[in-house]
């Protein structure tokens, strides 16, 4: 075999030529990492999309939920509460579609880290609120808080984002359709 290679670049006789029928650029086979990427994209994107859609029709409740954290000035927190559902819907849609995956995942991950810090802050200060992640938020009785669960969930979502920042390629993405030979932004 003397180091001969197939037209697809694989060593001759290995049966690993991944060129599409009729020639062209080699296809990348979908290994476990790319399927994990698809799952991470759908979990983080779907969660952000659902959270935003559940809040978008209730702007006053979204504003009150952000204000309940008592971190930002009252009016600023209200504006954040109004803008957050739009940001969540945009990032969620980009991730589900697999478009600008690395950038959307980075922003989604950073958003989760902000949520973790905000929830840890109210927990440490003894403020009892519902996080408002999926709709109504605001003050609740101390026995109704679920801070540990919410932080654990957000850590998992942040890890999905980190995976996608490091490995943005996944099956069924618009990034791969629009630019099959380069890693998405």
Number of domains in the coordinates? 1
Count of helical regions: 6
**What oligomeric state do the depicted chains represent?**
single chain
Largest sheet: 2 strands, antiparallel
Q: How many strand elements?
A: 2
Classify the beta-strand content into a percent band. Answer: under 5%
The SS-based structural class is mainly alpha
Low-confidence stretches: 12-19
Pfam families: MauE
Transmembrane segments: 35-56, 76-97, 104-127, 147-166
Subcellular location: Membrane
Protein name: Methylamine utilisation protein MauE domain-containing protein
Defining traits:
185 residues; two-stranded antiparallel ribbon; single chain
Q: How would you portray this structure in words?
A:
Residues 1-28 are annotated as: Disordered. The protein is mostly helical and 185 residues long. The protein has one domain. It is built from six helices and two strands, in the order ααααββαα. The protein has helices at 32-56, 59-67, 74-97, 101-124, 147-166, 174-178; strands spanning 129-130, 138-139. A two-stranded antiparallel ribbon has the order 1-2. The chain is elongated and about 50 Å long. The relative contact order is 0.16. The model is unreliable at 12-19 (pLDDT under 50).
């Amino acid at each position: 075999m003397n180091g001969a290679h197939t037209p697809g670049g694989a060593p001759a006789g290995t049966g690993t030529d991944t060129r599409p029928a009729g020639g062209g650029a080699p296809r990348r086979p979908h290994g476990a990492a790319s399927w994990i990427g698809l799952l991470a994209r759908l979990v983080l994107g779907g969660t952000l999309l659902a959270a935003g859609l559940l809040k978008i029709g209730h702007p006053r409740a979204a504003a009150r939920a952000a204000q309940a954290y008592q971190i930002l000035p009252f009016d600023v927190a209200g504006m954040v509460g109004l803008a957050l559902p739009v940001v969540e819907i945009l990032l969620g849609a980009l991730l589900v579609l697999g478009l600008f995956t690395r950038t959307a995942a980075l922003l989604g991950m950073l958003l989760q880290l902000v949520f973790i810090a905000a929830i840890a802050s109210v927990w440490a200060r003894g403020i009892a609120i519902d996080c408002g992640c999926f709709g109504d938020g605001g003050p609740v009785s101390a026995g109704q808080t679920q801070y540990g669960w919410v932080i654990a969930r957000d850590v998992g979502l942040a890890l999905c984002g980190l995976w996608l920042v490091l490995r943005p390629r996944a099956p069924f993405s618009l990034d791969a359709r629009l630019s099959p030979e380069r890693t998405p932004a």
